From TrEMBL:
Molecular function per GO: oxidoreductase activity, acting on the aldehyde or oxo group of donors, NAD or NADP as acceptor
Active-site annotation: E252
Lineage: Bacteria, Pseudomonadati, Pseudomonadota, Alphaproteobacteria, Sphingomonadales
Gene3D superfamilies xrefs: Aldehyde Dehydrogenase, Chain A, domain 1, Aldehyde Dehydrogenase, Chain A, domain 2
InterPro entries: Ald_DH/histidinol_DH, Ald_DH_C, Ald_DH_CS_GLU, Ald_DH_N, Aldehyde_DH_dom
Name of this protein: Aldehyde dehydrogenase
Entry's family note: Belongs to the aldehyde dehydrogenase family.
Keywords: Oxidoreductase
One Pfam family cited in the UniProt record for this chain: Aldedh
Domain Aldehyde dehydrogenase: 25-478
Length: 483
């Protein structure tokens, strides 16, 4: 379906159009540092066109369509998506360097997210409210309108699925703006929406600079809601930009998840999850357990296991199915990761594995970095407080539940946490005290379309997925009738 597909057009109002602003730019393959294709970049005028198309669709065919027909279209799309997993995975891996085995695994699940939200489209009823005998009160639920979906570079297709699935099921129309360094897969997504038969303007895709296209989407008076995934600092800018229009926002932001391993845990399972999570997506995922909190009696064993397993990670070209870990997604992220290695050393943490850019074995020119492990990390060090977003594990010893909880809660973030213990009482006690939107016990990063996902503190506002994931795209109207 994507053979010969050109990424040099925007998808607006059901048409493939040349950008009015921005132009066409090369997209860089992070495995080589060289361009792999040309992609259309829109400017403010393109966003205006896209919002106008989304508004016309919202007020026209999309609103008029019964919810079961909307659901059927979304199911068509989901079925088509399932047939294109390999092609989409190749495009995403080309753009962000994620190992193809990871891209396939993740993208292979997305059609089920779309199916699940499709199944809810005709079940969004309200409720009746008891009043007195002469008054009848009830609620109805309505789509908020045009949604601006702004996505990050680490998981562009997943972020799109988590936003477009519920937005379309709720009856909203969408303008999707992907991140600068990974725009291609979102244009491929537009091609699938077109092929699935969506009315023009229901889904529009405009890659572009965040400070230009993204900012225009946020300030546009006809955009009812921004669904954003990215950095906290960008979310704060979005709040200021959207202040005049009081645009509703939900935010999926960064994390510094603690992975807490008690001495009574199944250590082998805990290690498999903790090491796997430290280096998945080359460390570029918000919920990875980048802080590993280890009870002191098993501390040396865990540090040694991390050191040894870091050496076994197969770093390589991301399109090679044998590769575990590809490059960092762009040059700035590579610099950021390496700078944190320096910060960790300066702070006095012990570097037990990795720490270097990889510049050998055919990987020259790509943004490859070694799986990295710091031991003897203190909770107040910057490498334990700040989101690095690279394959850098910070191992911190603790004594007892109280200290584990204190360290776990000591960052500004609160997205996710992992906890390993064979003591059920302890698991409940500690899970209840951890400040995070998600706590996994004796498992890690297991999520599905039905499980709400999102953070507390500076990790976000609102939830994606689950029934809660629909709420941000709906308004409740209360009607009270005196008879
Ligand atoms: P980013 O904030 O730099 O960019 C995200 C998006 O915002 C991009 O599309 C960008 O173009 C756009 N943008 C930038 N400036 C803007 C502005 N002024 N107005 C409107 N839009 C603007 O984030 P990133 O570097 O692409 O992504 C990495 C971050 O995303 C990390 O912090 C990571 O933890 C977070 N993340 C969170 C989740 C989650 O579900 N909580 C999932 C994935 C990534």
């Amino acid at each position: 379906m994507f053979d010969g597909f050109a990424f040099d057009r925007l998808f607006i109002g059901g048409e493939w159009v040349k950008p009015l602003g921005g132009g066409v730019r090369p997209s860089i393959d992070p495995a080589t540092g060289a361009p792999w294709g040309d992609v259309a970049f829109g400017g403010a005028r393109d966003i205006d066109r896209a919002v106008a198309a989304a508004k016309a669709a919202f007020e026209g065919p999309w609103r008029a369509m019964p919810p079961w027909e909307r659901a059927a279209l979304l199911r068509n799309f989901a079925d088509l998506y399932a047939t294109q997993v390999d092609a989409l995975a190749q495009i995403e891996t080309r753009d962000n360097g994620r190992a193809i085995r990871e891209s396939r695994g993740d993208i292979g699940l997305h059609s089920q997210y779309y199916h699940w939200f499709a199944s809810l489209a005709d079940k969004l009823g309200g409720r009746t409210i008891p009043m007195d005998d002469s008054v009848h009160a009830f609620t109805t639920r309505h789509p908020v309108g045009v949604v601006g979906a702004i996505t990050p570079w680490n998981v562009p297709m997943m972020a799109a699925a988590w936003k477009l699935g519920p937005a379309l099921a709720a009856g909203c129309t969408v303008v999707l703006k992907p991140a600068e360094s990974t725009p291609a897969s979102s244009l491929a997504l537009a091609k699938l929406f077109e092929a699935a038969g969506f009315p023009p303007g229901v889904v529009n895709v405009v890659p572009g600079d965040g400070t230009v296209a993204g900012a225009r989407l946020v300030e546009h008076p006809d955009v009812a809601k921004i669904s954003f995934t990215g950095e906290g600092s960008t979310a704060k800018t979005i709040l200021k930009t959207g202040a005049d229009t009081l645009t509703r926002c939900t935010f999926e932001l960064g994390g510094k998840a603690p992975h807490i391993i008690f001495a009574d845990a199944d250590i082998e399972n805990a290690l498999n999850a903790a090491t796997g999570s430290a280096w998945a997506l080359c460390g570029q995922s918000c919920a990875l357990g980048s802080r590993v909190l280890v009870e002191r009696s098993i501390y040396d064993r865990v540090v040694e296991a991390f050191r040894e397993r870091a050496g076994r990670v197969r770093v390589g070209m991301p399109l090679d199915p044998a590769t575990h870990m590809g490059p960092q997604a762009h040059a700035q992220q590579l610099d950021k990761t390496l700078s944190y290695v320096g910060i960790g050393r300066d702070e006095g943490a012990q570097l037990v594995a990795g720490g270097n850019r990889i510049d050998r074995d055919g990987l020259t020119g790509g943004y490859f970095v070694e799986p990295t492990v710091f031991a003897d990390v203190r909770a107040d060090m910057r490498i334990a407080q700040e989101e690095i977003f690279g394959p850098v594990a910070a191992i911190i010893p603790f004594d007892g539940e109280d200290e584990a909880v204190r360290i776990a809660n000591s960052t500004p973030y609160g997205l996710a946490a992992g906890l390993w213990s064979s003591d059920t009482g302890r698991a409940h006690r500690v899970a209840a005290r951890i400040e995070a939107g998600m706590v996994w016990v004796n498992t890690y990063r297991y999520i599905r379309w039905s499980t709400p996902y999102g953070g507390v503190k500076q990790s976000g506002w609102g939830r994606e997925n689950g029934l809660e994931g629909l709420d941000p795209f709906l308004e409740t109207k209360t009607t009270i009738i005196s008879t």
